[in-house]
Amino acid sequence: METPGQLSVEINSEASSAPIEKAIDAGIPVIGSALESSSDKITSQIIVDDPLGGKMIGDFLAERLKGKGNIVVLEGPIGQSAQISRRKGIDASLAAHPGLKLIASKSGNWSRAEGQAVMENWLSAYSGQINGVLSENDEMALGAIEAIKSAGLNPADVPVIGIDGIPDGKRAIADGEMYMSLYKYAKAEGQGALDIALRQLVGESYEPQSEIWKTLNIDWAGGTSKHYTVPWLTLNKENIAKYLN
After folding, report:
1. Could you tell me which residue ranges the Periplasmic binding protein domain spans (predicted)?
2. In what order do the strands lie in the sheet with 160-164?
3. At what angle do helices 50-64 and 81-96 cross, to 10 degrees?
4. CA 230 to CA 193: how far, in whole Å?
5. With bands split at pLDDT 50, 70 and 90, how would you rate the model's confidence at 178?
6. Using alpha carbons only, what angle is made at residue 44 by residues 42 and 48, rounded to the nearest 5 degrees?
7. What pLDDT, on a 0 to 100 scale, did the predictor assign at position 1?
8. pLDDT tens digits, 83-113
């Protein structure tokens, strides 16, 4: 049975390269989504800019702390593509804000429970010294907030910033417990990848069906671009009411 095309949702950009290139060499177009592939053979990919996301949350925390303070970083599984890319952006932000001092970083494996446990240990080891928290996803950020509250501290006094904009994260922002987050348009990545794949199969007469191209102002470019970037949406107390439902 002939395979007309393939959608690839990467977990690890390096590990996915071999099967992607095998498909391409067999004449099967491959459209990537979620994480950037390290293969330059991939037909096209539509992703968020994770290094930019990491830099954005670092810059927002620097602004909140007026450029000075001790911070900690909760990371995803070490070596996973999103962890590497988001940490790259965080490091770039820290380099641009030398008044921020990174006193600890550790993986919470994208887990709320692990994020809470790591934060509890930090609050004990660095009692009264932590001024802010950067988390590479919202689940770990929510765990950090629980640890902060359990320690008798006010989350508003130890700002926590996450990434992904999950429902619980949005509610935490609305409740004043999470300082802010970046919303990842997973729907845009999925629907966009499908449109690009259909363009490969149907040809230049194909018109994109998803609304994301217009609503997010992503240039369709005839459906033939090698790389499409989905923008991040900043979620904070000023705009969160619009995105709760």
Report:
1. 11-204
2. 100-107, 69-75, 132-135, 160-164, 180-183, 233-235
3. 40
4. 11
5. very high
6. 110
7. 37
8. 999 999 999 999 999 999 999 999 999 999 9
* pLDDT at 238 (0 to 100): 97
CA distances from 155 to 130, 209, 245 (A): 12, 43, 24
Answer CATH for 50-183 from 3.40.50.1370, 3.40.50.2300, 3.40.50.720, 3.40.190.10: 3.40.50.2300
Burial letters 189-213, b for 16+ CB under 10 A, else e: bbbbbbbbbbbbeeeeebebebebb
pTM of the entire predicted model: 0.88
Q: Tokens 């820290």 belong to which residue?
A: 94
Yes or no: say if 141 and 169 are a contact pair by the CB < 8 Å rule: yes
Where residue 16 falls among pLDDT bands split at 50, 70, 90?
Answer: low
